[in-house]
Amino acid sequence: MLRAVQLGLRGEAMDSSTIWMCLFCAACMARCPAGIDIPKVLETVRHISMREGRPPASKEVALFQRLFLGQVAGMGRVHELSLGGSYNLRSGHLMSNVGLVPRMLTRRKLSLLPHRKGARWFKKLLSRERKARD
Ligand code: SF4
User: Fold this and answer.
1) Residue nearest to atom 7 of ligand 1 (CA)
2) Domain boundary among 13, 29, 57
3) How far, in Å, from the CA of 106 to the mean position of ligand 1?
4) pLDDT value, residue 42
5) CA distance 77 to 74
């Protein structure tokens, strides 16, 4: 993947499923002897691919990313319960992980309602960032 980027093989890089598989855990970056920010490279290639309207190698990951970023842009953070629900509905995997919800709610790993704290601040930050980019 990185070699494709280095060699300027845009098509190969952007059509690769690798850019859709990265979880941005940064484990590779922490161990990379060359100090390459691998997740940043993958994220950048993914964004360029999306901006150019290329079909994603993984439609499910693309859907999840769109929903995730939509929540972040709208609320300043993610509400996992509604994110999971939206994803299940739109992906067609209606019952995926539904069995985990009651236990996660009782253990307070999920909240019923979204947290609004910081949403306004984040929207301002996002708006400023977009203006600076344009
Ligand atoms: S950040 Fe690196 S180790 Fe983590 S998922 Fe992405 S490529 Fe793999």
Assistant:
1) 22
2) 57
3) 31
4) 93
5) 8
Residues 74 and 110 in one domain: yes
Q: How far apart are CA 64 and CA 59, in angstroms?
A: 9
- Residue closest to 68 by CA, chosen among 45, 48, 43: 43
62 in the same domain as 52: no
Q: Are residues 73 and 111 in the same domain?
A: yes
- Whether the CB-CB separation of 60 and 92 falls below 8 Å is answered with no
pLDDT digit of tens for each residue in the chain (134 aa)? 889 989 999 999 998 889 988 888 899 999 999 999 999 999 999 989 989 999 888 889 889 988 998 998 888 889 999 999 999 999 999 999 999 999 999 999 999 998 877 778 888 888 888 888 77
For residue 124, what are the contacts with CB-CB under 8 A and spacing of at least 6?
none
| Mutate-to-test residue for ligand 1 from 16, 17, 28, highest number of ligand atoms within 8 A of CB | 28
CA 64 to chain centre: 7
Quote the domain boundaries for residue 53: 1-57
Q: Which residue has the tokens 């309207």?
A: 53
pTM of this structure: 0.73
